[in-house]
Structures are given as structure tokens and as C-alpha cells.
Batch of 3 targets.
Target 1
Amino acid sequence: MPHQSMGSANVVLPNLGDTSSMSPAAERKLGDRIARELYRDPDYIDDPVIMEFVQAIWQPLLSAARQRGELPPELDEAYAWEILLGRDRRVNAFALPGAYMGLHLGLVGVVSSRDELASVMAHELSHVTQRHISRMMSRQAGQAPWVMGAMILGLLAASKDPRSANALIVGGQAAGAQTQLNFSRDMEREADRVGYSVLTQAGFAPQGFVGMFEKLQQASRLNDAGDFPYLRSHPVTTERISDMQLRLPDGAASLATRAAPTDLAQAMVSARARVVSNTEIDALRAWEPLTDRSVLNKQSAYQQSASLYGASLAAIKLRDYAAAQKHLALLSELTRADLSAARLVRLLAAELALAQGQGAKALVVLNAVPTGGGVSANQAHQRGRAEMLLIAQAQLQTGGTTGLAEPLQQWLAEHPRDAWVWQVLSSVYSAQGRAVAAVRAQAESNVAQLDYAGAAARFRAAQELARQGTGGADHFEASIVDSRARQVEALLREQAVER
């Protein structure tokens, strides 16, 4: 059934149809194989503040795709719908088999609005929901899935360092693989069309597509030398730009007539992405001049919030805590009337306190000082993942773990694939003298990142501790370990057969 466009002047393109011979389950297994390697990549990062910002865009897009019928239940259940952040300064995002999405911090750092980032994510989401990836792989029917996975991994490695790809793709094979895995023009147009409708259904401004195209087009005109890898896999054509302009409500918006950005929280997250993606000493020091009063006076509030936030975070990483505190004070005053931005300032202030070993001060900053020892489950759980993790770090730093495991356990009941929270819970259990539970939590962290061999080894270690009676485990805990150990061993055998 063709999807109707929301713009009155739009040309409605026919749905390309699902001509894939690969089942969603098979595609998911291939995606798992690729994601398993990406989780091991040193550039993989889970920054709670950035990830929360990205998820606040991703989840509404998923909901909109479901509401529009773009995401049928069989795909919704079979696919992972996971985002992997990469500490890469270049502008890129890519969809992988099984609905894993790679997102470079370089892209988060260059956007001027949530709408721009949402446009890229909606486009990539639509490549997945329209099964473009599996359709391309179906054309390579003679290729074994592991070969396709190796090709994709090789291309990702080549985009970072051509030499590192040699183990996976040799010589001219890389060019052939890129040709095989590039989306066709029809697929790009369909992803634009469907992505636009998903974007607007989710409540984001359609100008996000135009703004992002402007950035990509400018990079293309400047003969991008590699800073925008997204251009190679998703070339911006005049046709695509014109189509997006026609889809705007007034049908005649110009690329150059966009309102100046005013979202202070987004400016701060983008600044954070730029700092986290480049922690070289000179790059960190380059933030300080941006906070000079003569420079700040010439900037908008949006620019000031980015400059002060980036400079403060850079100063924390340089261990110049006095400078970080000075920048935070100015930033706090600037964002006082903006609840979302003020919250990010509090989170950064807590990070500053933790960096100085002042866990108790961090708890005060987070407004979560325990009364009677411990943060209640509801208190921490309702504050969000970033607060929850900072509270846990602060209480571990101060030596107080009473009531700390409960909010982490509640979160994991709803998000069992959150590897970092499993690691933090392991630290809590260890501080409480619950060795078996601590090792089990480490094993679950391995499972969350698809490292079944590592998980199996840790579950065996937990079983041994339970048998020795030295790990503080009761019968219930030991039973959980035994059950999970059997399940992971089965996954490990299945993984071995796939090879």
C-alpha cells in the first residue's frame, strides 16, 4: 500500500515493496554479529547525557513509525532497535541489519537543532522499516551471512583507518563491497519520503530535513575530504533537496531562511559531543578562549551556553577544577529560567564534584541527599538514567550503598540490555559483600553486549563461588545463576553453529 505524503505539493512515490528473501530473524542474527564487534571497539561509548538526548529523539520516532504502520509487529519484535554511539568526530550515521543504528558524536556535535538530528535518524529508521538493508543483501544471495557481516565491518573499519580493514577486506574488494552495500537512488528517495512523514508525526519540525541538507550540501561544495562520511553513503542530490523543500508546509522555504537556534539544552549536548569526541590536550584547551568576556558578549545565548558548557567539561577533563567551577557559575546564571538546560548544568556540576572525589557534594548538587541512609528506589528511578548513575557513583564514593541496588534493579527490569547499569550494579553488590551477585551482574553486562563467551565464563565463576559458600549467595541467587548459565551456554553453542 503506498504511503501518502503530508505535503500538498508532493509527488507520491510508489512503495518499493519488500523483495527481501532474508527473514527478520536471520537479519537480526547478522546484525548481532556486527554489533558484537562494535561493542568491543574502543570508540564505542555510552555517555548517559548524550544517550539520553538521543533516546529522547529516537523513541518518539519509533512510536510514530508504529502509529503510521511503517513498523509492523513482526519487525518490531524481531529487531534490536539499539543505538550505538561512536566517539568519532566525523559526521556519520548508519543503519545496520537487525535495526542497530550507529551514530557518530561528530553528527551530534554539528547539528543546530533536535529537528536536524531527528531528520537523519528518521531517514535511517526508514531504511530499516522499508527493509532496504535486507533487500540489498538478498541481491547478494550467493554470499554467506558471515561474509556480508565481514564486508560491513570492513567498510566501517576502512572509514576510520584503511590499514585496519585489511584483515577483513583485501585490496579492490572494498570498493566492490561499497557498491554492493550502497542504497539505490529509489531507496534514498523512499527513506526521505517515509522519514519525513515519521519525523512530522513524531512532532519534529520538517525544517530539520532542510537544515541538515544545508549542512551536507555545504560540505559537498567544499569537497569534503572525509569529515562527512555520511555524504558517501547518502549523497545529497539536487533532486532530494528540491523534494524536501516542496514538502515543507509553505512549499517555498529557502535553505537560508531558518530561524537562529535557541534550544540551550541542545547546544550544551552538542558541545558535550564535541568535547567527548576529541580529548586531546590542545583540543580541550581550545575551549577556554571561547569563554573570554569579550567573546561571550558577541554571542547569542545559544552560543554562550555551548561555549561555557564545553569549556567547563574540558576543564574537568584537564583537572582544572577552578576554571570548571567558574564557567559553571556563569552557565548556571544563563540557564536559570530554562528547566532542561538547568538540569544539564546540575548534572555537570555533579560530575565536577565526583571528579574531585566529593561524592557528598555531588549528592547535594543532585538534590538527592539521603535522609536516614540511602536514596529511595522511586526517588532515583524517577530522575532518569543520568541522575541514577551519578547518584550511584556518588554513594559508592562516600561508602553508602543502602537502598542503592533497588533503583538499578528496577531500571534493569525494564532495560535488561543496559550494560553500564549492570556494571554499576555489580559494583554496588561488591561493596555490599555479595560476590556471587556481583559476578552475575558482570556476566549480564557481557550478555547485554552479546559477549556470550565472556558471560559464560563469569557465570561459571559465580557458580563456583556459590558452591564454596563464600559469595554471600542464598539459594534463590544460586538458582538464578544456574538458570542463566544454562541459557547463555545454549546461546554460545548456537553462536558456534552459525560460524
Target 2
Amino acid sequence: MNAPSPLLGLSTPDGSGRSVLVTGATGYVGGRLIPELLAAGFEVRAGARKPEALRNRPWADQVDLVRCDLSEPDEVRAAMDGVHTVLYLVHSMGSGGDFVEREQGIADVVAVAAEQAGVQQLVYLSGLHPDRPVDELSDHMRSRELVARRLDACSVPTLTFEAGVVIGTGSISFEMIRHLSERLPVMPGPKWLANRVEPIAIRDVLYYLLHACALEEPVQARAQIGCGRAQTFASMLTDFAAEAGLGRRRVVPLPLPAQKLSGVWIGLVTPIPMGIAIQLAASLAEDAVTDDHEVARLIPDPPGGLTSYRSAVRQALARQAEGPLEVTWDADLTASAEPADPIPADPDWAGQTVYTDTREKTSTLSPATVWSVIESIGGQNGWYSTPGLWRIRGWMDKLLGGPGLTRGRRDPRTLRVGDPVDWWRVESMERGRSLTLRAEMRAGGRAWLQLGVEGTPEGCVYRQRAVFMPSGIVGRAYWTAILPFHAVVFPSMASNILEEAERRVDGATVAD
């Protein structure tokens, strides 16, 4: 064994001389696993649809970044060339449409490419589900099981790990539990709150994946992984509240049989988009408990044993207190979504209907002072105008299936390309000068918000532009309906951003 890894303190195997391809490198699990693989001495190839999104990661110069759209056979085959082990860490649940069918097609591409490239081992992270006919499972679990079957059928040995609720800061499961516990002292909820679930710490998931890459011989197997103790989902909420010091929480399962209704409940209370929340609710309606611990025959338990749920929560809360995360669950949704077209740099949109709202203000402040406010906009810092109207629009977006305002930011002070900012995402940024946010809210079209500052002899000029490209009559109707909102929000936003910059110069506390 090598020394424990510097990031999570995992016990690492000796990976020297072995090449590993991580698919889904931009995602929650892949982004955390790569530093552990590097610490163990593996040669790492990081595959992503948009590898440029990985260039700002601390480990980017230590890995081979490759373009690997899993729906493109040639790209997948090239990415696997010379690789011993391929880690399959992707899913398409966040991409809309028939993700079940899409995932089967991707699995076929991966299986064929692995055979052609001479890959020695496939490792797939799947979901823990009841032992019942596949057509009786939720869409989410059925898709995971069908992918596993596709990989099992190929000639390359496949080790499939079946994991339940993953607990770790930034994971979709942890964030769902955290938001439900923090916001609802008394939690009425669906009857599946009484279902039995076996969670697993992200640390232990990474441990198993890491050691699977170092197996002496290729393995064809299914391995269920968990913490070794099942509990109800309701008790997971109350245990979290106890560890977080939130006080006693009461959970009241109600006879709500409709899975969609319970998904809407999750979607409204947490940052999880409604469509994803509905799929998760359907999966939580099924027990997820390991039937055995046969995985220990392949990979011994972590030194010190498996991480209990409450220990995993404590570790997650400690990590959360350390500062911003490198990657969260939201990265999985971004990676699986179709790439959006960037905002045109030229204001001539060649006949495309475009609505804009442009504001400009001068100030005696330095550009750097104003920029500090621009880069910290959103999340807990707010949007510097009519917070009540923003909250109303956020709830409307949640009801329509968008992210609303509950998603927040990765870091309250700094941004990078690809970061979520409430219902926006950072499309481009020239630090100190300009920021372009692309809307992910439900709006009947494509929308951007551009904020920028430019120095002048007297101080600076602050510029703000909202751009909306409607999709048909619905989009045009939407823009017309929100014009009164914009007439209040955007002028005050421009004024308040400069006022906030002045307050920061004076040392005042940031206000919403």
C-alpha cells in the first residue's frame, strides 16, 4: 500500500504503471476520484464531452485530458487506446427526454469500444435496488440495471458496484437531506420516508473504485456496497439534524402514493430540479439495502471499517465548513446536458428576434472594487434589487421544473466558467472586466445576463445587459409579461451594485 492520499486520507493501492480512463471526469464522483488515482500512482486519462471545462482543476496538468462524448464511437475508441481499466461514471438522468433509452445506447458504445481497444477491466458504478423484475423498477434504477446488463454481456470483464444513497458534501443525496432537514422542523412527507435505505459515504465509494483499478486479475462480478447498517429515510433526516445541531426534527410519513407528488415536494424544498427530484422520489420509493457483503472477497474493508451514516454526515459537514467545493452534484447535470450555444459576441443576430435591456452607469470607484461585487452576485449575497420579486420568480421557476433560487453558488466570492449561480450558469468570464451568465430557468427561450466594468480616468463605467431570444409565441408572451418586473429590477440592480461597492470601500457589511 502507498501512503494515505492527501485529499481524503484513503488507503491507496499501488497504481504505478497502470493506465486508467475516467469517463464522467467532470462529474461529482469522477472529479473526486481523479486526485485519489493520482496519489496512488495511476496514469490517469480524464474523458469529458468538453475537456476544456477541466483545465482549471488543480490536477489538470497531471492527467491526459481527452474529448470523449460517449455517444460518439470514434471518440470513445480513441480515448480508450492503451488503457488498462475504464471507469464508467456517467448517467443521463439530467439530460431530459428518454434517458433510459439514451443510456442503453451509450452503454453499447462503451462496450464495443472497450472490446476493440483491448481494455482489460470495466468498472461501473450502478445503483442499489430490490431484487425484482427490471420492468418493476423505477426509471432511474431500471436504467442503471439495464446498463449493467449491457456491460456484463460484452467480452471485457465488468465489475459493477451497486451503491445506494451516497453521503458527502455536494452529492445530490446529501444536499437533498441537508435542505429538507434545515428548512422543515416538522416534515410531513410521502410514505416512502419509512422505507429502509443503506447509505454509503462518498469516501468509501471512492475507496472501492480506487482499489478496483488495482485488482491483480480482471474480474467479472456484481458487488453491493453500503455502510453495513440499514435505516429508514426518515431517521436519516433526523440523524442529520442531530449532527448539524439543528435541534429535534419530526418526520411524519403521510399516505401520499403519488411518486410525482412527492418529487414535486422535494423539488420545491431543495435545489434539485423538479424533473430530477421526481426521478429520485421514484427511486426512494424502493428499499435500497445490501443483501450481502461479498465485495470483501474482492476488496477488503477500508482500514478502520466502513463509515457509519452519522460519521459520514460529520465528515461532510466538516468538509462543507472548510470552504468551496471543487465539484458538486450539479456538475453531473451539466455534463449530461446538451451543450448550449454561447451568446453571440456580435450584436447583429442575423434576423433572430432578440430583446435586450441595457443599463450603464459611471462611478468614481475603481474597476476592481466594482468587480468584487459583480463576481459575488447571487446566492447568499442576493441580486441587489427587489429580493421579494426575485423570490417569487424563483418559486415560479421551481414549479415549472427549473432550478429556482435554491441552488446558490459554489463559492460566495469567486466564480469560474461552468459554475451555477442560482438559476444562472457562468458561460464566460474575463476576471476584472466582464461576466456572462446563461439562464437555466424556464423562460420560453434563451436568456443571458452580462455584467461588466471598464476603467476611465475618473473611475469606471458599469455596464449591464439582459438578452433574451424567444422561442416562438410563448417566449414573446413571456418577455411582454415580465417587462414590468424588468422596469423595476434592472435599474435598481445597476444602482445597488455601485452602492454596495461603495459600502465595501467604507467597510460596511454586505447587504442583500
Target 3
Amino acid sequence: MQLKINVQSKVVHYDNNEQTLLDCLESSNVEVHYHCRDGFCGACRVTLVEGEINYPLGEPLAYVGDNEILPCCCVPVTDITLLIEE
């Protein structure tokens, strides 16, 4: 089943379960600021407006607030909608 990611007025398809959400967004030319790619720094933090994600390697060490996720180390479980601050 191909999941849809609604972000910045476009729809990105997540169809490779081996990649992180950040990798998927980058391959679709959606810019997300990042540094470590491992859930330590929190630089890639975005707002999850709708849907569910999972952290396959365990919860990230960086602080995440309510409705915030770290795309560098998560994968979508359902269709999701993201808000990325410019």
C-alpha cells in the first residue's frame, strides 16, 4: 500500500519502507533542514498535522514537542500531513 504525504501544497508518495521520511521528502525535492540524520539534534523537526508515524529504531533523543516529529528517523504508518516552517 502506497502512503501519501501532504506537504507544502504537494502530495509525495511513500512507497519504500526502507527509507526514512526525510529521505522520501528529499527525493521529492521537499526541503527539510537537518544536521545529524539520527534523531540527536532535532534540526529536522516538523509539525505532524494529521496521521501517524513510527520510530522503527526507538524514540529519538532530541526534544520533540506536541505534534512534532523528526523525519530523519521516522516512517509514516498512515497517510500524513506535515507543516514545515520556512
